[in-house]
Specification:
The protein has 488 residues and is an alpha+beta fold. The protein has 20 helices and 9 strands.
């Protein structure tokens, strides 16, 4: 018995030492602690600094590197900063994989599903299907624009000529979801406001419970058996169940009324499921695709609008400039349209600067390395997880000079015309570029322009919001705020 115990202890010690060994040529970073690597260091910095992206940035600064090597749980992670390196990650084939770990499987009820976190044939099939069906359904520029304008007309009607101390954030989230509901699930869901409110709440709670690395629960999955509440395991399971039940109910309603006609995306998917010869088209996969569409399209777009509105109110001279541009080029026309974009370069520049200033996804990813490779001067082993620090691009002083200052003029030339800066990285690059880019850009422009075409917006007296941001989950969120609306 003693001999067995000594053998066990020896093996345990050797394993502990092995877990601290840094692979040859791996990027610099903090030393790996036995068993858990840098898990608790990053968690501590996350809590101290108010966001995982800040923890990663501090480590990158401490080790003076744009390619930071970490170990979180049993997995190797590389945090990539800087435009040149991040563009390599986005465009090279060896960085196009997705992890297959506890976090990824947990988000879709135990198996990798959907579009965002799948790879290979499933990913190609599902992404191509989504893009093809949206084109076939006519959700290109004109039809999508009409849906957005219909929702904005409803929003302005509800707001009326004047509102004081109103929370716009929830209404913007609801407006974004309403348009997406119409595209994905049809008009019959569009009218169920209680469902929209429930979905917003679930998505926001889910966002707060995750980070891009999956958090402590992903790095030490066995903790779910010891402290399921502390690791958010119970919360995530509960939220996932509610979301899946929510979407399953919608799918069941479609099945009951399904005909040969295709009314919306869910109908198209159910038709494909009936006719497809492969196993990729299932109810569970449809639910995961819906979840990807809503997470990727709704929260990020609504949060981006929040930041743009706050920045405009916080800089009165900017609001005066955009009101002057609207007055000169739009006058009293009923509602702005996408055709007005070319007439409103200052508003376009303002929206670009807002996305640079507070991009809602400061850390993007995760990518899985598909084969042993190199990045910069470092060796990156197969199956390493890559996270990209987009904040490092948007706050690069060598490029932006004064990135801490909010300045729409960065995106205008000497003649006041829009100037696109290729260093701005908001929708990704390469094969995994965001498929919802067209929707997001259209919704941002139309909603922002309609609000400021209709209203002068300010903070209620003595209710200016805090400039300190809440702790970030997957997304960066604005602090809570209310506004005063005065019809122009």
């Amino acid at each position: 018995m003693i001999q067995f115990l000594m053998y066990f202890v020896t093996i345990l010690i050797l394993y502990a030492v092995w877990t601290t060994i840094r692979p040859s040529g791996f990027p610099p970073g903090p030393c790996f602690s036995p068993f858990f690597g840098n898990t608790f260091l990053i968690k501590k910095l996350n809590k101290q600094l108010g966001g995982q992206y800040k923890a990663f940035m501090k480590c990158s600064q401490d080790y003076k590197t744009d390619i930071l090597g970490l170990k979180l749980g049993n997995s190797l992670y590389v945090i990539v900063s800087g435009s040149k390196l991040i563009k390599q990650v986005y465009t090279k084939d060896e960085f196009q994989g997705r992890p297959d770990n506890f976090f990824i499987r947990l988000r879709t009820m135990g198996t990798r599903r959907g579009i965002t976190m799948t790879e290979g044939p499933v990913w190609h099939e599902q992404r191509n299907f989504v893009e093809r069906i949206f084109r076939q359904l006519g959700f290109g520029r004109i039809k999508m624009e009409n849906l957005i304008k219909q929702e904005l007309a409803n929003l302005v009607s509800v707001l009326g000529d004047r509102q004081d101390d109103i929370s716009l954030s929830q209404k913007l989230s609801a407006a974004t979801l309403n348009v997406l509901w119409n595209i994905v699930g049809g008009i019959q869901i569009f009218k169920k406001q209680d469902k929209i409110d429930e979905l917003i709440s679930l998505l926001k709670e889910r966002d707060k419970a995750f980070d891009m690395s999956g958090g402590l629960l992903n790095q030490i999955p066995c903790l779910r058996f010891i402290c399921p509440n502390f690791t958010n395991y119970n919360l995530i399971r509960s939220l996932n169940t509610k979301l899946y039940n929510f979407f399953q109910e919608v799918i069941n309603e479609h099945k009951e009324t399904l005909t040969s006609e295709t009314r919306d995306f869910i109908d198209a998917y159910l038709h494909e499921k009936q006719n497809s010869r492969n196993d990729y088209f299932t109810d569970d996969q449809l639910i995961a695709v819906c979840l990807d569409l809503f997470i990727g399209g709704a929260l990020s777009t609504a949060y981006t609008l929040d930041f743009a509105i706050l920045a405009t109110i916080n800089h009165p001279h900017i609001q005066r400039k955009l009101h002057e541009e609207i007055k000169v080029h739009l006058g009293q026309q009923e509602m702005p349209s996408l055709a007005d974009k070319s007439k409103l370069p200052y508003i376009e520049a303002l929206l670009l600067e807002s996305q640079r200033f507070q991009h809602v996804i400061p850390i993007a990813g995760p990518r899985r390395v598909l084969k042993n490779t190199k990045l910069g001067n470092y060796k990156i082993p197969k199956n390493t997880i890559i996270l990209t620090n987009l904040r490092s691009i948007h706050y690069d002083k060598n490029h932006w000079k004064d990135p801490e200052i909010f300045k729409p003029e960065r995106f205008l030339n000497e003649k006041g015309e829009l100037k696109i800066d290729n260093e701005l990285c908001t929708f990704g690059l390469g094969k995994r570029r965001c498929p919802g880019e067209a929707f997001a850009k259209s919704f941002l422009f139309l909603t922002f322009t309609t609000l400021f075409h209709t209203y002068k917006i300010s903070f209620p007296k003595d209710k200016k919001p805090s400039l300190e941001l809440p702790p970030a989950g997957i997304f960066l969120r604005s602090p809570p705020y209310t506004v005063k609306l005065e019809a122009r």
